[in-house]
Amino acid sequence: MPRVKNRVAAKARRRRVLQRAKGFWGRRGTIYTVAKHAVDKSLQYAYRDRRQRKRQFRRLWIARINAAARLNGTTYSQLIGSLRKADIQLNRKVMADLAMHDPKAFTKVVAATKK
Question: Residue 96 to residues 12, 21, 83: CA-CA distances in angstroms?
């Protein structure tokens, strides 16, 4: 039986891995076997961090809202509770943006919850 080398597919597979490893430090970007492990790990990190990014942004928004709320004489938890009672539907992303870039508008939102 003749030997099958499968050169075209093997080369394409290796080239695909090395393209993904382009820019990696040292041998991780040039040697196939090392690059393969590095690319596999990087894909795991990418999958995990797509979920963690959402958590990290939420934590950042909450910290910014809390800091601005305390400047206005309340706390984050009191503010969120009073927003719900006042039926003001602003999400944390928008609230954090107001707190950072338009403190006067944020103060008006806090005042609206106290009514």
Answer: 47, 37, 14
